[in-house]
Amino acid sequence: MEEMMKQEAERFETETQALQDLINENKANLKSQREEIRSQKAWDRFLLCNGTPDPSVQSELNTFTSLSIDDTKNSSTQDVNGTLADVEQALDLINELDEVIALDKQLDLEEGHAKFKQGISSLQELIETKVDNVTFNVMRTAEKFADGDTQNLLIEKESPRVRYSLWGNLAKNP
User: Fold this and answer.
1) What is the DSSP-derived secondary structure letter of residue 146?
2) Cβ distance 93 to 32 under 8 Å?
3) How far is CA 147 from CA 60, 157, 165, in A?
4) How far is the CA of 1 from the CAs of 4, 8, 11, 13, in angstroms?
5) How far apart are CA 126 and CA 128, in angstroms?
6) Distance between CA atoms of residues 11 and 14, nearest Å
7) Which residues, other chains included, contact 158 with Cβ-Cβ below 8 Å and sequence gap of 6+?
């Protein structure tokens, strides 16, 4: 009986080691696949030649958001259509980061997600800053957008994923 237990323990140890080796091999394959997919996406991004950063590269994303926020805060001429285009671009970058996170989750890899989520937060902050700035600029020059009869301000612009609407009573009438 004792010999049978010893043989069973050895068999169990052998199977456990084989299973662990298989798991390690699969993890290596998954990481390799992820890197291949990311490099293909990087190449596709390079071929676009549109000047947007690779959102999975933290330094590029930080530079892009910092410069965009500074430009926005220093701009007094930002128009609604330009802002909507900038918001669309930021949403595209957020979608790319979401795709990276989703791909990693499919491959059961969680490394680097904190920086991707921080990148999404900085892009959301950029969107907020751009919308706040354009609203400020519109309100500062509200007379240009006023309806002649009602003296109300009404702006409605939209892009494929964003709608910007602003209403204001400029004549102070009920």
Assistant:
1) B
2) no
3) 43, 16, 15
4) 5, 11, 15, 18
5) 5
6) 5
7) 84, 164
Q: What is the pLDDT of residues 59-105, one digit of tens each?
A: 999 999 999 999 888 887 788 999 999 999 999 999 999 988 888 88
Altogether, the residues listed in the chain come to a count of: 174
User: Measured between alpha carbons, how far is 133 from 153 in angstroms, rounded to an integer?
Assistant: 17
The CA-atom distances, in angstroms, between 74 and each of 90, 130, 141 are 19, 11, 17
Quick one: which H or E segment has residue 26? helix 2-48
User: How many H helices and E strands in the chain?
Assistant: 4, 2
Query: Model pTM?
Result: 0.79
User: Where are the strands (E) in the chain, listed by range?
Assistant: 152-158, 163-169
Residue 110, φ and ψ in degrees, nearest 5:
-115, -5
Structural tokens at position 3: 């010999």
Which 8-state DSSP code applies to residue 170?
Answer: S
- Show the CA angle centred on residue 123, arms to residues 64 and 68, nearest 5°: 35
Place of tokens 């947007």: 52
Residue 8 burial (CB count, 10 A) = 10
CA distances from 11 to 14, 21, 140, 149, 163 (A): 5, 15, 79, 90, 65
Two tokens, residue 102:
């989703």
